[in-house]
User: What shape does this take?
Amino acid sequence: MTHASWIRRVGAALIDLLVAAAFVVAAQVLDGPDVVVPSLDPRTGQVLPGAPSGGGVVYWSVLLLGLAVVGYNRWVQAGDTGRSWGRRLLAIRLVGDATGTPVGAARALLRDLAHLVDALICYLGFLFPLWDAKRQTLADKLCRTVVVDG
Assistant: This one.
């Protein structure tokens, strides 16, 4: 089992992030929230808050569809095969560190949530693969996963 390089892991994560970003941009373009601009009451000169705005049905539908697609890609597909779309393009897989087999959807989701720990310490956890023997992030260590070539 050869552990995947840090740069390939980053590349795969960026590809997966682009998928999510596409839905956020599409939701904003199609039916994004209006900018709320305060107004001035001409009689009193008092600043009045603008009307609340929160995007319409299309906006929230596109965001929910995006969450479903990202969930399928990052948790279901990656959990079943070890490969999200980004990992597939860069020929790397997410597997259990003891078994070398795909980790399942629940553990893939838990790993993505555990990346919050990587981010909480000034994103240092994402740099751990640069010096760690198994090239693991803190989330990988917590969830007992590794990313390998193949």
